[in-house]
Amino acid sequence: MSNGFKRRDFLKGTVAAGAATAIPLSLVEVSFGMGSNNAAAAGAQDFTFAYISDSHLTHIKGTEFNDNFDKGLKRAVTELNFMSPKPDFVIYGGDLSQLGKKAELDHGLEIMSGIRELDVKWVIGEHDYYLDLGAYWRDNISELYYSFDHKGVHFVVLNSILTYDEWTHERWPTAMDRMKAMARLDNPEGSPFMVGAEQRQWLADDLAQVDKATPIVVLSHSPLYQVFKPWNFWTEDAAEVQKLLQPFDKVNVLHGHVHQVLYNQIGNITFQAMMATAWPWPYPVSYAQHANAVPKTTVFMNRADPHNLRDGTGWGSVDLVSGRETIHHTLWRNTNRTIAYDADAGHPVDTKYQDPASQIPPQDHY
Amino acid sequence: MRRLTTWLVGGALLLTAGGAQAQTLDPQDPPLGLPPIPVPDDNPITKAKAELGEQLFKEERFSATGEIACASCHEPEKAFTDGRAIAEGIKGRIGTRHTPTVVNAVYYDTQFWDGRRASLETQSLDPLVNPVEHGFSSHESVLEVVRGDADYLEQFREVFGVGADGITMDHIAKAIATFERTQVSGNSPFDRYRYGGQTDAISESAKRGLQVFRNKGRCVDCHTIEQNHATFTDNEFHNLGVGWDRIGDDVFDLVANFRKMKAGDGEAGIDQTILTDDKVAELGRFAVTLDTQDVGRFKTPTLRNVAVTAPYMHDGSEKTLMEVVEFYDKGGNANPLLDGGIKELDLTEQEKQDLVNFMKTLTSPRFAENGGH
């Protein structure tokens, strides 16, 4: 600057760029549910991980991709990098790609590589799977189902978007025909998602090694319960999977696919949906031709503004507190939501909007 | 000095400012096209207070060099702006942001480009002690000027009922805010067309421009027009990518360091840092909320009198209305936090010109002589 004026003179409080780690501000410890639990006895600690899900990166041609969906994932990666303190790791909830193409998966990996200094745990979605049945994913990204332990919590990743062998292997002239058939909603030629007998046996064997007091987190792409079949908000063998999980004291299922705030409780199992970065789905209650089982505990998201590309989408983080998950949804151009397990109610509740009196009235002026 | 002349008639305040035509100013009955003027209960508008506020607004002794008044950047002759890209304070010191107009600022929910002050009353205190603006080290210097001036003492006694020792910065802020509150301006050709039923008040091109503004241009999403008034702002904060090229990947360190600074010093020094560090300045609304969704977001400015308040954007980086239209047409500046409402518009040359012509109809008669850009 001119006339000898030094702007740095005024920065008495600033620390030079690139200096040490940030002071924790964004994540405050919550102490609910600390009383009647034995998670501490099982050695579980509190920690935080982040999630990004359902980006649906869509290849157009050459190096050209749908810009809207790129923007969603890039925004999530950027905001995740701002987190302070940093989460322990990141979950990717599936449907990184739209049609499972190598170009789309590579493009997704490139954008996700913008995440600084954190491991990503990958869950596969049907849009990633049905072109090559997970071959490129397995070779370049991750196993399709696996488990790991973190700070006293047992994590299980399932490939929940499998279906009948006949549908997968015998119906379609080309792999892309199969991919496009599974990508459609309301498809009379479609087929329900399932975990399948082989994987359920693996899960039973895996869980046999785990103490019943150890908190469990299951990561899947489809909800491991049944909400609405025409859109595959559904897992056909959900009841059998749940049966394997119910003996544990604290079970948290985190899934993608539904592109909306959705939460439920069945027995010991708490279910939470991850938001999509690509677009929001309406709630199935808006589709009257078929029965739905949208959980009554869920306080719906506001209707998204179709004029705003990012409304109704987002990413989030999950605090594991005494083995129960508290999910924080960052909703772009919408009101952020936090949903936590309420020990008295015995199910998850929105910490701010569960009471109808505190919900935001619908917009009546356009 | 040109005095603001005001007089009360039956509860309504009549005023002439800058030689403009006399107009009635009843907060509940504002000029055509404007909503009622928000007036805080503890600071009602009076003629004497507005007049005192105008003198304080133009007081150059309110600066370390005796040369800078509020009016030095908010020049009444330039529709209360300065025509510069970035504001210039004492000793030619350059800040980081473009001077916004005072005209119709009363309709903002928050003040400053990042909304770091909630009211006109709280806004005016910060520039006085900012080293790149008025440059005082403390507000005590402001009080010394007022307490040492017999004419001011008389007026403060009349307006607030206080003697020299009783005068506080609160009184000064209230007087300046009251003057600013009277600087509302509607009755533009657009207002006469839209709200006055005068169908020939604007050109055919401007009428087409209004259609583009409301539809294909998506302008009205943020620069709002209501059924019976238009402030041309949603009072929200949006990321258009203006100034993003100054931070780029540094944004992660800037955010981390700013959090640390605010955790350590609280609000102290924030105003200085924002106006002296041209990278921190680009964090925008984040500096106020610490919500990283707000990084790079700035307040939607009103478009009233926009043709006479060039240049544009929070950093004055667009020189003409056509440049602004071109900026939006290309979908702003790409960055990961770009507002979801910003996308390529694909406007034709005719549509762009119509939009510019529409914006030129937003100039109030009082400022029409300043010409357009």
What does this structure look like?
The complex is a heterodimer of chains A (366) and B (373). By secondary structure, chain A is of the alpha/beta class. Chain A has one domain (39-353): 4-Layer Sandwich (Purple Acid Phosphatase, chain A, domain 2), CATH 3.60.21.10. Chain A contains 8 helices and 15 strands. Chain A has helices spanning 67-81, 102-112, 126-129, 135-140, 165-170, 175-183, 197-208, 238-245, and strands spanning 47-52, 59-61, 64-65, 90-92, 120-122, 146-150, 153-157, 216-220, 251-255, 263-266, 269-273, 314-321, 324-331, 337-342, 347-350. In chain A, helix 8 links the parallel strand 8 and strand 9 (251-255). Chain A starts with 46 loop residues before the first strand and ends in a 16-residue tail after the last strand. Mean pLDDT of chain A is 89; it is low at 1-37. In chain B, the strands form 2 sheets. In chain B, strands 1-2-3 form a 3-stranded antiparallel β-sheet, with helices on one face. By secondary structure, chain B is mainly alpha-helical. The two termini of chain B are 28 Å apart. Chain B has helices spanning 47-57, 70-73, 120-123, 125-128, 140-147, 150-160, 169-181, 189-194, 204-214, 251-265, 270-276, 286-289, 321-329, 349-359, 365-368; strands at 5-9, 12-16, 23-25, 237-238, 298-299. The radius of gyration of chain B is 21 Å and the shape is globular. The A-B interface holds A 1-3, 5, 7, 9-19, 21-23, 25, 71, 74-75, 77-79, 81-82, 84, 116, 307-311, 330, 332-333 and B 91-94, 131-132, 218, 221, 250-261, 263-265, 268-269, 272-273, 276-278, 280, 290, 292-293, 295, 336-341, 343.
